[in-house]
Amino acid sequence: MVEGEEIVDLRSWYSGLGHDQWATLPVSGLPPSGRYKHAAAVVGDKLYIYGGSRNGRNLPDFQVLDLSNSAWSPLKPIAAPNSINSENGSLLDVLPATSGHHMIVWENKLLTIDGKSKSSSYITGMLVELTLRFLDLETEQGGVLETTGDIPVAREGQSVTLVGSKLIIFGGEDVRRKLMNDIHILDLDTMSWETAQTTQPPPSPRYDHATAVHADRYLLVFGGCSHSTCFNDLHVLDLHTMEWSQPETRGDYLAPRAGHSGVTINGNWYISGGGDNKSGARETLVLDMTKLVWSVVSTVNPRDPLASEGISICSALIHGDIFLIAFGGYNGRYNNEVFIMRPKIKDSARPRIYQSPAAAAAAASVSAAYSIESGKQSELTKLRQQGGFADSDERKDEKRLLESSLAEVRAENSLMKGKIDDINSTLAELYKELESVQGQLITERSRCSSLEAQIVRFQGLLRFMPTVETELKLLTEEKSNFEQDAESLKQGSGGVWQWFSGGGNSP
């Protein structure tokens, strides 16, 4: 802890967080410099940050945040044996300064898939191939992993998704700024690449999008951008049939965005950050991947660090609860704050249309109580059929069994009561929103009545318009006649003023 910093009880701080609201994590140690388009991954209770971009310069550093004490520290890996191919033997040859890359956890290693770096440029007029690098977390040694097969060209802004033992890469932009929408698959067991052949129209070429996998079968692609526009579309690739589709979604409206980040928790895809090159995306979204329903979880201010492009989002288990962790991004300035959210996990496995949580809780409670009661009657009947109770020890065993079962039912009832209380709380909030909407509706009705009264008054005035126009026409004619008479008198001998003064010639 740096001298002068306030000591924070982190366990209490985490437990005191509400659901679905971002909070700034109090950290100690020297934090990383602000950056965006970095790579991030969580292993155990540690958040790893690698590279990124700042002021047009790629960064080469590894930084680690210990989530158990919220302390930052640098990680200085060493080159693994036989990993340096250059003459000067620099570690930067195997873990170079890079941005727009991705990092995933595989066994005891962090694997990084190249983004924009010096090693991803032209070599004698040819495009270089994508490089896979590693950092061994036990030895802190880094290096390059040799791969074979149909290796894709180097790119940045691509998506990388781990499905079982396979890495799936989609899209991105190569060093010639060519946008792509191809699919490449790396088998991590054999370290062999293949280019996937898909059917049906794929998403348009793009980069800085986000992807997720659902049920180990469906690859979901959301957002991203081309050189002229940003997207808010959702595409799905069936990894069994390799067929693309663009399913219809429901729920809240989504602003187009690129440079966002996401993470999946229990069938829900949480997405935050991004922007459209004009403003940052303020909403943190969640997609129920089973029902394909979008919801807005929270909304931040326009200049908030969370409304940034090139942000990273990870999930971590801290003190028994799942939290979202956001870091970095650019929204006019380079950010290095750490933000934490405790998501209110939704059960996406069971559609609400079939059974509401309240009904499920009540049914489970009644079923359990009925089962125990039936068990009691069955045991008593059995004992009576055997000629009565054998002895006091058997009665005590049966009593303990029944008391234990009853305690389990009571515990389950208590749990169900908690769920029902949550539902009632949600209903109360909905009733408040309904009352607010009703109040707004009453105000709008009053305003409409006032406008209708004004319309009636104006219609009444319009009915008199013909009469007013007729009178105006008559007055205009009278004025014209008067002016003609006056002109005639003026043209007479001496004019009209001479006539009034009596100075004119006598007839």
Instruction: Return residue spans where pLDDT drops below 50 for at least 5 consecutive residues.
Output: 1-6, 349-391
Mean pLDDT across all amino acids: 83
Strand content: 25-35%
Shape: extended
- What spatial order of strands do you see in the largest sheet? 8-12-11-10-9
C-alpha-based Rg, rounded = 37 Å
Largest beta-sheet characterization: 5 strands, mixed
**Span between termini:** 122 Å
Q: Count of helical segments?
A: 5
* Number of DSSP E strands: 29
User: Roughly how much helix do the residues carry, as a percent range?
Assistant: 25-40%
Class inferred from helices and paired strands: alpha+beta
Assembly type of the chains comes to single chain
Plain-language structure description:
With 507 residues, the chain is an alpha+beta fold. Helix content is 28%, strand content 28%. It contains five helices and 29 strands. The strands form seven sheets. A five-stranded mixed β-sheet has the order 8-12-11-10-9, with no helix packed on it. A five-stranded mixed β-sheet has the order 13-17-16-15-14, with no helix packed on it. It has a five-stranded mixed β-sheet with strand order 22-26-25-24-23, with no helix packed on it. Strand 16 and strand 17 form a beta hairpin. Helix 2 packs antiparallel against helix 3. It is extended.
